[in-house]
Amino acid sequence: MPSLLASAGVTAPPTHPVDVLLILVRGDQVLLALRQGTGYADGEWNLPSGKLEVGEDAISAVIREAAEEIGIHLDQDEPRLVTTVHHQNWTGLGRIGLVFAVDHAPARHGHPTNAEPHKCAKLEWFPADTLPTNTYPYTAASIQAYRTGEHLMVSGWRETPPP
């Protein structure tokens, strides 16, 4: 007997990676990283972010990503979940993004540095309401949802995914 998924025309269950994204806030500005050398979205501004690792909780993941990508230290009680973004990228892959915000306190966190120069050309602060035109859409949606207080943002979905 065919499975429910097969009878519905679905050949495999969907895979939606879970990402953690950090909005590091300094006044009315947010920190972005310019991607380079990754082969994906190079030349676009992105939030410090990454995928959950096997067996890792979301808070530990955002703390790890902050240390790995921008060299700052966050305590377990600092990241606050501000929104969730369900994004479909240009390849048609859906992703779930848990977006956390932290108000930057240099004395406690340290100063952001480009800790992954092989993946990032530079870090820069931008006004949250005036992002660069080459901001990655997932990042732009995350910041927009944060600014407007939306609990869930659906971004990039099209009626027909690319082949």
From TrEMBL:
<dbReference type="GO" id="GO:0016787">
    <property type="term" value="F:hydrolase activity"/>
</dbReference>
<keyword id="KW-0378">Hydrolase</keyword>
<protein>
    <recommendedName>
        <fullName>Nudix hydrolase domain-containing protein</fullName>
    </recommendedName>
</protein>
<feature type="domain" description="Nudix hydrolase">
    <location>
        <begin position="14"/>
        <end position="151"/>
    </location>
</feature>
<dbReference type="InterPro" id="IPR015797">
    <property type="entry name" value="NUDIX_hydrolase-like_dom_sf"/>
</dbReference>
<dbReference type="InterPro" id="IPR000086">
    <property type="entry name" value="NUDIX_hydrolase_dom"/>
</dbReference>
<dbReference type="Pfam" id="PF00293">
    <property type="entry name" value="NUDIX"/>
</dbReference>
<dbReference type="InterPro" id="IPR020084">
    <property type="entry name" value="NUDIX_hydrolase_CS"/>
</dbReference>
